[in-house]
């Protein structure tokens, strides 16, 4: 029997904060996380793409996870992103994450090498068999080059602790294909901000979001409107939000989202190289979008910030 989890709603992929010397700023990371929890998010994902998990050492990852579990205090589930170069490396990191107290894993294919279907299935099966923690499989072929298809997920049905699919291919047709192929075996989460509302309407029960890091109340308002069937309200928020939601599918999403967070008073834009801070016209373009969206917030949500 598959494991049952109560994961649903908006789960921010939270940035890791860095000090001026680019060492981890645990206090700032905890402060941002606490603010998101207090603003009504439903779960937490650390060390994903936005969390720059691949830029941290294993000991740093454990430090971030322990600090996050402390802040969450059991109020919401804490998941750790797992993106490693080898299957064994992923197993080792999963073990360390479990010892740090996380509630689950968001597992990616192995990095750099473009595995074929047989290799990809073996990777997910092996890592899942190394832990009792529930696992969300993250499918993002535009970025990570490996597409975990509905037919491949059929071969993972017997793996009891693989419980959720984070679908980030950008093709919302895939969501219906997953449901048709797999029925209700897996929960399906929206994985890209700029197709989020479409994904909810097609049956996704959760949203791994990036822009929620800067706009937690607006994200929650969009989610609540969609879940209550108030699509007129949901569309109003979504159309306002879309210029920023596009950041999530840009190659520099980490810099874009961290800069947005900084503009809203959440943390700092610092990233670890090879990512560098935005400069010049690109920086002004992003800030222009953000500042225009701040100035035109949906009225009922904006009033909650005053």
From TrEMBL:
Gene Ontology molecular function: any one: 4-hydroxy-tetrahydrodipicolinate synthase activity
SMART domains in UniProt: DHDPS
SUPFAM superfamilies according to UniProt: Aldolase (SSF51569)
Short name of one Pfam family: DHDPS
InterPro entries with a match to the protein in the record: Aldolase_TIM, DapA-like
PANTHER family to which the protein is assigned, alphabetical: DIHYDRODIPICOLINATE SYNTHASE (PTHR12128:SF72)
Protein name: Dihydrodipicolinate synthase
Lineage: unclassified sequences, metagenomes, ecological metagenomes
């Amino acid at each position: 029997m598959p494991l049952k989890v109560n994961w649903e709603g908006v789960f921010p992929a939270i940035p890791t904060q860095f000090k001026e010397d680019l060492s981890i700023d645990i206090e700032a990371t905890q402060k941002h996380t606490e603010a998101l929890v207090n603003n009504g998010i439903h779960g937490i994902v650390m060390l994903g793409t936005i969390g720059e998990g691949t830029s941290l050492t294993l000991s740093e990852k454990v430090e971030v996870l322990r600090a996050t579990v402390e802040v969450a205090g059991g109020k919401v589930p804490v998941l750790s992103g797992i993106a490693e170069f080898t299957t064994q490396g992923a197993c080792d990191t999963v073990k360390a994450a479990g010892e740090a107290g996380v509630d689950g894993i968001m597992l990616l294919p192995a990095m750099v090498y473009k595995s074929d279907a047989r290799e990809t299935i073996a990777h997910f099966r092996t890592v899942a068999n190394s832990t009792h923690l529930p696992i969300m499989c993250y499918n993002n072929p535009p970025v990570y080059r490996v597409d975990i298809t509905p037919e491949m997920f059929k071969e993972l049905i017997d793996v009891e602790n693989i419980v959720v699919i984070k679908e980030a291919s950008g093709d919302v047709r895939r969501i219906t294909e997953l449901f048709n192929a797999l029925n209700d075996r897996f929960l399906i989460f929206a994985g890209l901000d700029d197709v989020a509302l479409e994904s909810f309407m097609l049956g996704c029960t959760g949203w791994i979001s990036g822009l929620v890091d800067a706009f937690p109340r607006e994200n929650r308002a969009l989610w609540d409107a969609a879940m209550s069937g108030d699509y007129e309200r949901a569309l109003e928020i979504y159309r306002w939000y879309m210029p920023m939601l596009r950041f999530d599918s840009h190659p520099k999403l980490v810099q874009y989202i961290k800069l947005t967070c900084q503009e809203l008073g959440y943390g700092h834009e610092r990233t670890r190289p090879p990512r560098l801070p935005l400069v010049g016209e690109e920086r002004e373009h992003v800030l222009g979008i953000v500042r225009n969206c701040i100035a035109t917030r949906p009225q009922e949500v904006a009033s909650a910030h005053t």
